[in-house]
Write a structure and sequence with these properties.
alpha+beta; Chloramphenicol Acetyltransferase; 2 domains; seven-stranded mixed β-sheet; 23% strand; globular
Length: 466
């Protein structure tokens, strides 16, 4: 390896690499359910041609030097026995069996001796099959990976069998446009955040310097200070010591039009409605376990796309994070929607997404132990990770077969044990929940609560309409 060129990971991707922990794996996991059975050779051909456009899928990550700086290292030929595997189900209860495989693979880390991705062909799933993908977060964020995934698809069965170019998918994240700011702001924020991170840890050692740190006067400094100094989230059953086993659940499809009609009458957004329903589902779960929810708020880390629309085909991580306080203590669905809307509007007016991205860039340049300390610091102030990705508006095909279902689950960093993912596809919305088995052994109960909340919102909407 001495004569081999090693490319260092950029600071943000390095930060995601170093967040890896046996009890919190940094993988994005996705499932594609296909209408028809597909031969493994066809899947291999599609995956091989689609992913070959990206060097990252032919490179592994190696740690170099005493600082264990992560670098990309080319592997030559891919080991397809590792990267593409088959799973044969009993065929009795397709969804439950697929769910068990998702649980198992979400709990197993990717092998760092190989490029950090793996595909499993699961069959039979009814008359069809499922394709399960696991990709490490240091390769790319969810938006970029969705673009890669869609490059393996086509608008028809015939087109999906042809070599696809990386999809130029429009409107994958409407929230990204709300937060996107000029590139030079990122540079300024990065420099500012580096200074503030150093200042923050300096105050841990020298409390007398807190006043000097607090005098930094810009809005960006205030935002960064607020993020760093915010109190820990209240202790609930969603927070605690993490273990290795993870569990996943996903909802039945919800017509997107129903959500749009609710948002229309409430003057909110689709995102507001879904986040309010999810907050209500978490409330129901806590109440069902006998926990008090009076006045309860806790924070969800919500990724925000900052990617330049002209660089949709580029891998890597280009997103910031805003920390949304979820009004779990509000019982009334309408009041909860209005409160989520108000809080989201405040976040949209703040530089929090830009600052968090710059903070991650600064953190990625620090020693590994410092990175872990900062990530755990933010983890103590956060209860969940929630992401909402608007997917394709029409049905797509993969390997000659129609895609019936798309779902994915997000990783949770910093000792966070609850992940929520919302994905729209072909006029429908699905919710995915990923939990730590020791904290939430029955994530399907959160899914049931989500459906009940949406049903209650729809009932209120029909009362207004009638």
């Amino acid at each position: 390896m001495n004569n081999e060129y090693l490319e260092p990971l950029n600071n943000v991707d390095a930060a995601w690499r170093h967040m890896e922990d046996p009890s919190n794996l940094m993988m994005v996991t996705g499932v594609i359910v296909l209408e028809d059975a597909v031969p493994i050779e066809t899947i291999k051909d599609i995956v091989s041609r689609g992913l070959s456009k990206h060097d990252r899928f032919r490179q592994k990550v190696v740690d170099v030097g005493v600082m264990k700086a992560p670098h990309w290292s080319s592997v030559g030929d891919l080991d397809w026995d590792y990267h593409l595997q088959t799973i044969t189900l009993a065929g009795q209860d397709a969804k439950a069996e697929v769910n068990r495989e998702v649980n198992r693979l979400m709990s197993e880390g990717l092998d760092f001796d190989y490029p950090l991705w793996q595909v499993h062909l699961i069959q039979p799933v009814g008359p069809g099959c499922a394709v399960l993908l696991r990709i490490h977060h240091c390769i790319a964020d969810g938006m970029a990976l969705l673009g890669v995934l869609l490059s393996l698809t086509g608008p028809s069965a015939e087109a999906s069998l042809e070599l696809a170019a990386v999809s130029d998918v429009e409107n994958l994240s409407s929230s990204g446009n709300l937060f996107r700011q000029a590139t030079n702001v990122l540079g300024k924020a990065s420099r500012l955040t580096s200074k503030l991170v150093r200042g923050y840890f300096d105050t841990l050692i020298h409390p007398s310097k807190i006043l000097d740190f607090a005098r930094v006067g810009s809005e960006g400094a205030k935002t960064t200070a607020r993020m760093l100094m915010r109190q820990e989230d209240p202790r609930t059953l969603f927070r605690g010591e993490l273990g290795v086993p993870k569990l996943a659940a996903w909802s039945r499809p919800v017509p997107l039009q129903k959500v749009k009609e609710i948002k229309q009458v409430t003057g909110s957004t689709v995102n507001d409605v879904l986040l309010a329903a999810m907050s209500g589902a978490l409330r129901q779960y806590l109440v069902g376990k006998g926990e008090s929810v009076d006045g309860l708020d806790f924070h969800a880390a919500v990724p925000v796309n900052l990617r330049d629309p002209r660089q949709r085909a580029k891998l890597g991580n280009e997103f910031g994070i805003v920390f949304l306080s979820l009004p779990v203590g509000i019982a009334d669905p309408l009041e909860r929607i209005f409160e989520v809307r108000r809080r989201m509007e405040e976040l949209k007016a703040s530089p929090e997404a830009i600052i968090s991205f710059a903070l991650l860039k600064a953190v990625g340049a620090t020693p590994v132990e410092v990175q872990k300390a900062i990530v755990n610091l933010f983890g103590s102030k956060t209860t969940a990770v929630m992401t909402n990705v608007p997917g394709p508006k029409t049905h797509l095909y993969m390997a000659g077969s129609k895609i019936e279902t798309l779902m994915f689950w997000v990783p949770q960093s910093g000792r966070v044990g609850l992940g929520v993912s919302i994905l729209s596809y072909a006029g429908e919305v699905r919710l995915g929940v990923a939990t730590d088995q020791g904290l939430v052994p029955d994530p399907e109960e959160i899914i049931h609560g989500f459906h009940r909340e949406l049903d209650a919102m729809w009932g209120l909407y029909e009362n207004v309409r009638n």
